[in-house]
Amino acid sequence: MNTETESSPETYVLAEQIKVDVLTGLSASPKYMHSKYFYDTKGDELFRQIMQIPEYYLTDCEMEIFKDRCMDMLNTLSAFPNGFDLIELGAGDAIKSSELLKCLVHNDINFTYYPIDISGNVIQLLHDELPKRIPGIDLQGIQAEYFEGLKEVVSRSDRPKIILLLGANIGNMPPDEALEFCTLLREQLLEGDLLLIGFDLKKDPWVIFNAYNDQQGVTEQFNLNLLTRINRELAADFNLQNFRHYESYDPTNGAGKSYLFSKTNQTVTVAGEEILFEENECIFMETSHKYSLKEVDHFALKSGFEPVMHLMDSKKWFTDVIWKAV
Ligand SMILES: C[S@@+](CC[C@H](N)C(=O)[O-])C[C@H]1O[C@@H](n2cnc3c(N)ncnc32)[C@H](O)[C@@H]1O
Question: Which domain holds residue 245?
């Protein structure tokens, strides 16, 4: 784990770990990738582009919530008179949380902001940009995986904790893994600590389908970029022309899934291992799970939290919920 500006993203994820994970995934049937590896410097940039494409409604909806309901959030979150630690897991460019951060700083709330992200690039960007946008912010970025970063914050400070997990992050875990994640998170917190978490809601299936099948093809580039990363970091020879993106959404269970499929029979060498692909064989790249409000509340209760507040955008497409550890 690295803090602040001490390392580059490429040095953080140990070469051996990415090699083991990629080779395990490509030897499985069906083949899969770990979506946390999407975020190298180019992947961060492509994700920022995705957030701006017209079909990708998630950012606009959540931005609306953060702009319009900041005071409601502030009233609930500033319940700790001696200050608190505000920890954002998978912060990315913190575009939405910045609205809350501004509100907290302008209202002289005593807090330290700890963005945690696996990408050292985004932590560096936050250290470069946030103090300019929000003068006076107390910022300590940590480049790490979620729980490793959280343990680091707990070792640095015993103030009450408020955890942010925004955007697509929880949706990028299948429901059983997401529930386990919330349960583990609860174990790291003390009674009364708070969690503000974003869930994308079930809605018109075409709206969801189109969000991951954008006309400009940025989502496809984002997926293909992981093959480029593997080529660079694991001496692989994926030919990107031989793979295409495919997205599915199942409205009966809320499961959105991204794949890359092989356009031809081919052999790819990855870290010295030969990986065979049949024509039309898929690599499962990422899940984007959608929930109902009832399922979200159920999650809170099952993982040791009490739902305190649902905040929704005007279309009721996305919710940010505040849960209290009980
Ligand atoms: C889909 S982006 C969302 C960013 C931000 N939460 C938002 O709502 O705009 C996911 C972010 O989480 C980070 N991330 C993904 N898996 C992670 C992990 N296991 N530990 C820490 N960060 C992770 C990525 O680097 C990326 O910045």
Answer: 2-38+47-53+205-289
